[in-house]
UniProtKB/TrEMBL annotation:
Keywords for the protein's UniProt record, in alphabetical order: Membrane, Oxidoreductase, Transit peptide, Transmembrane, Transmembrane helix
Pfam family, one: PaO
Native source species: Helianthus annuus (Common sunflower)
Domain (Pheophorbide a oxygenase) ranges: 62-141
Statement: the UniProt record of this protein carries the keyword Transmembrane: yes
Protein name (record): Pheophorbide a oxygenase
Length: 280
């Protein structure tokens, strides 16, 4: 299971999850490197309890107000369960469960935090785009969504169905009552917008444990590097052999380089990883 606080609204997140064709563009270089292709999606009858969609690779279901499920048709089945929980205007929490009926033994050996690194990267890769999209839609009004967004293809069927459901059964938006007004929070700096530490890591026991463990290893490497340098510098010529001195010097350099690499790895994986489509 994976959770993360997302700095854009519930409607934008569900709409994004229902659009399979955006993957080849918004997540270019992570999930796919090829161009887009036609994809036909057909919607079963929509009602207040949601709708079901059929597509070439499987089926998906929207169960209002927060649940979107996708699953394959083949014997080796994958399933993706997304729970999108509104928190406040411009903020929501994503809970994601990835299931499969094959190669489950891998999970005994691969810790969850290693999966979470790639899942965070996928979310980060289009986070800024979606955050700005919500701002643009707010300027024109969510009720005018169909007049602002151009959705001409059959692959847009789920997005259109969701917007129709939202308009018919929820007035096109979330009713926050008296708790919030409908204004969106200001856009923070990019590092804060895409911050992984507060939005995911502190609430994830696996990532939190890895973060503390890797930082401890970094400190050990730094201490050993400093101790090795001090030992070489303080030891008089002849007390230890030349080979030992050279070994200590090499070990000190390797530990120092390792600690620096680990510092950047921890920061990129657990704090902030900038993503620029122009370089993909």
């Amino acid at each position: 299971m994976f959770t993360r606080d997302i700095p854009y609204g519930y409607e934008i997140l569900i709409e994004n999850l229902m659009d399979p064709t955006h993957v080849r563009y918004a997540h270019y270089g992570i999930l796919d490197r090829e161009g887009g292709c036609p994809m036909e999606i057909n919607i079963d009858q929509m009602h207040k309890y949601g709708f079901t969609a059929n597509q070439s690779y499987g089926r998906s279901k929207f169960v209002p107000p927060c649940l979107h499920i996708s699953f394959g048709k083949s014997a080796r089945r994958l399933s993706f369960i997304f729970m999108c929980i509104p928190v406040s205007p411009g903020n929501n929490r994503l809970i994601f469960i990835f299931g499969r009926n094959f190669a489950v033994w891998i999970d005994r050996f691969v810790p969850r935090w290693m999966y979470h690194i790639s899942q965070n990267l996928v979310i980060d890769s289009d986070m800024y785009l979606l955050h700005i999209e919500e701002k643009k839609l707010m300027e024109t009004g969510f009720s005018n969504w169909e007049n602002v967004c151009f959705v001409p293809t059959k692959s847009d069927a789920k997005v259109i169905a969701f917007r129709k459901w939202l308009k018919k059964y929820s007035g096109g938006r979330i009713d926050w009552g008296n708790k919030f007004d409908e204004s969106l929070p200001p856009t923070p700096p990019r590092e804060q917008l895409m911050d992984r530490y507060r939005s995911h890591m502190v609430n994830c026991s696996s990532c939190n444990g890895a973060y503390k463990g890797l930082n401890a290893v970094k400190v050990v490497l730094q201490v050993f590097s400093g101790a090795a340098v001090a030992m070489v510098a303080a030891t008089k010529q002849g007390i230890i052999s030349v080979a030992t001195r050279n070994t200590l010097a090499v070990a000190a350099v390797l530990c120092y380089v390792g600690s620096k690499w680990l510092f950047h790895f921890v920061h990129k994986c657990f704090n902030y990883h900038g993503y620029n489509h122009a370089f993909k």
